[in-house]
Amino acid sequence: MKPIRIFQHIACEGPGYLASILENYNIPSEVVRIDAGESPPPQTNDVSALVFMGGPMSVNDDLEWISQELSLIRKAVDETLPVLGHCLGGQLISKALGGTVYANPVKEIGWLPIQKINNAQASDWLQDVNDNCLAFHWHGETFSIPSNATPILKSQHCAHQGFVSGNTLALQFHVEITGEMVREWANLYHHELASPSETVQSAQLMTENLEFKMKELQHTADGLYRRWLTPLIK
Question: How does residue 55 score in pLDDT terms, banded at 50, 70 and 90?
């Protein structure tokens, strides 16, 4: 099988739990370290899918690799390759498919529940995902739903938490996060947690009962990743 190509935009936001899932399915993968100065390979004929991770930058920033990745997403979608985006990655997919990325009414940082949207696509993609499950968030911007896509997830403070279009899955939240990553982000970005609110949690609250929260999130991740990988593991 051709490998899945994963685009990493900052050192602390690697593939995380997704790497474990791919290993369990014996699916090879490779990571393109944009954060280390690597350039996005322009071809897609040597991979079976594309994955785009998160990052603190904005999709609307004038960065060469952003325009390159947007082109790659459009190329992959045209070729019906599976495409997956986490947070910034989901925003890249939205913009590539004609959507927009803009400031969410509030920042969402920490553990907040997400809800299923009542439509056929959501029923298909979320068969193994519990409604109102806890998800991990760290974003100030969000995406619109492209005209050829269908929303499948939302939250109280962010109307668009996920959408699908064919073999493409775009997520606003961080389903790939691990417990170690939660602690690392809480330490690295502690300045963003200085004024906790209804949607921004303190580091203490964020890491409290972490094993329980991770178990719930990884149940969600298992369902979403398994459904996204269906074309590759049939």
Answer: very high
Q: Is the pTM of this model over 0.85?
A: yes
Range of the domain at 68: 4-233
Question: For residue 216, what is the domain's CATH number?
Answer: 3.40.50.880
- CA 96 remoteness from chain centre: 15
Q: What's the structural domain count of the chain?
A: 1
